[in-house]
Amino acid sequence: MRKNIFILIVLMCLGNLLTAQDIHFSQYYSSPLTVNPAQTGMLNGSYRVGANFRTQWASVTVPYKTFAAYGDFNFLNQPFNKGFGGAGLSIIRDQAGDGNLTVTKVSGCGAYHLAADGARKYYLSFGLQASYIQKRIDWSKLYFHSQWDDIEFNQSRPSYETGYKSSFIYFDFQIGALYSFIANEKVSGYASASLYHALRPKDSFYENDFKLGGRPQLSAGATVNITDAVAITPSFYYQNQKNASELLTGIMASYAVMPSDENSNKFYFGTYLRIGDAFYPVAGYEFQNIRVLLNYDVNYSELKPASDGRGAIEISIVYTGARRNKGVIDIPCPRF
Question: 19-43, pLDDT tens digit by residue?
Fold first, then answer.
């Protein structure tokens, strides 16, 4: 009972933070279209499809579950062009809490990647994303402070909540820019900036004018080939929305089983830190252009006493389709 009361107090104190944050993944590098629309079509292949699944806080309350799927491709990537285009689609579904707060988001993305040099080793990319969002909640499963009877929450008591809706929809827009490069045979990298909720749409179950805060995101990383078989990729990701912010940083190492084969199977190992919240190891394997990564978030924030340190489990799977046209050239896309 004492633990349940503690959980309630912690969640109430964190309420503003939780409502301010958007859907996010620990594996930001495996969810390119939710990080920056300018990454659409920026891949070494003809097309890419992927999915992410995350479940968190199972020990604290009803688990938060997030599922995302996406696909993108590039076009006009020919040696005589100064750039090429990218297009994609992503779908996200998120379910959270006792009230089954459900968010469904469908987004279309487009990007143009302009070569900044004749050798096409440096690219400037610009992207736009348009989204349709639907939110739903089951008010009958929620408890309010007026329903506390000094012993427990009693739903037979009135909540005094009025003027609310069970669902609503809105449209949103995101913009982004990306700089990517191949410095030499051993080093490549990228720097990314994007703004989500660019037009600050209304987002509320009540009849008020609450608007989403703009969510700027910054990320950067570099891949360094230590040997023909071993590469490391340090990176960071930062986002801010009103009074909530998130900074993740870490490093991923990959080992190619057959270094002479461009499509060699690979092992992945990494460790990352979400500052002030959790650290998480990552492991995975790539086979025939299918990469699967798994991570486990170990919580160390003020929720640790309630969560017993257990944060989230997340898995991603990405398939990159090989090029069919040998006339296209390599792209200095962010690699992980």
Answer: 435 678 999 999 999 999 999 999 9
Coil, helix or strand at residue 100: coil
Q: Which of 292, 306, 297 is nearest to 274 (CA)?
A: 297
d(CA 56, CA 277): 13
pLDDT surpasses 90 at 153? no
The SS3 assignment for 218 reads strand
Identity (one letter) of the amino acid at 29? Y
Measuring CA to CA, which residue among 177, 176, 165 is closest to residue 202? 165
Residue 290: which residues within 8 A CB-CB, separation 6 or more?
317, 318, 319
C-alpha to C-alpha distance for 157 and 307, rounded to whole angstroms = 30
Residue type, 111: A
35 φψ region: left (φ > 0), alpha (ψ -120 to 50), beta (else) = alpha
Q: Which helix (H) or strand (E) holds 5?
A: helix 2-13
CA angle 329, 285, 264 (to 5 degrees): 40
CATH superfamily of 2-321: monomeric porin ompg (2.40.160.40)
**Listed range (65-74, 116-125, 273-282) with the worst mean pLDDT:** 116-125
List Cα–Cα distances, 269 to 35, 123, 221, 280, in angstroms.
Answer: 22, 28, 16, 11
Q: What is the pLDDT of residues 166-192, one digit of tens each?
A: 889 999 999 999 999 999 989 999 999
CB atoms inside a 10 Å sphere around CB 161: 12
Domain ranges of the chain: 2-321
Tokens for 109, please give them: 């993305």
More confident residue, 310 or 29: 29
Query: Coil, strand, or helix at residue 214?
Result: coil
d(CA 223, CA 308): 35
- pLDDT classification of 137: cutoffs 50, 70, 90: confident
Strands 122-136 and 101-115: antiparallel
What's phi and psi for 93, nearest 5 deg?
A: -135, 125
